Amino acid sequence: MRLDVFLKLSRLIPRRTRAQEFCDKGRITVNGASAKSSKEVKAGDRIGIKRRDTITTVEVLELPAKKQLSKAEAPEIFRLISTESSGEPELLP
């Protein structure tokens, strides 16, 4: 499954286009490496999401079989590893 689709279905990022923008700006990592929106993710991958002054790390537990998930089902496909402050607030363009 594509990274941008996973981020949308998991509701970590609300829209696919926004997930693509995060990837294009280098704010998303998969297993520690910067990732493009077309990167294929699989169970066990660790995704890092940098937002302003926080970095959220999650682990992919499973890939959804459906194209849409309910709000209750979305958190079941990933596990929150950590949310940490990056120390330096990032300036928005």
Shape: globular
DSSP strand content: 25-35%
What separation lies between the terminal Cα atoms? 30 Å
- Largest sheet at a glance? 5 strands, antiparallel
* SS content category: alpha+beta
Overall helicity:
10-25%
How many strands appear in the DSSP assignment?
5
Order of helices and strands: HHEEEEE
User: Cα-atom Rg, whole angstroms?
Assistant: 13 Å
Question: What's the arrangement of strands in the largest beta sheet?
Answer: 2-1-3-4-5
Number of helices: 2
**Chain-averaged pLDDT:** 89
What would you say this structure looks like, in words?
By secondary structure, this protein is an alpha+beta fold. Helices cover 17% and strands 28% of the residues. It is built from two helices and five strands; from the N terminus they run H-H-E-E-E-E-E. It has a five-stranded antiparallel beta sheet, with no helix packed on it. The longest helix is centred in the N-terminal third of the chain and has 9 residues, at 16-24. The chain starts with a helix and ends in an 8-residue tail after the last strand. 24% of the residues are buried.
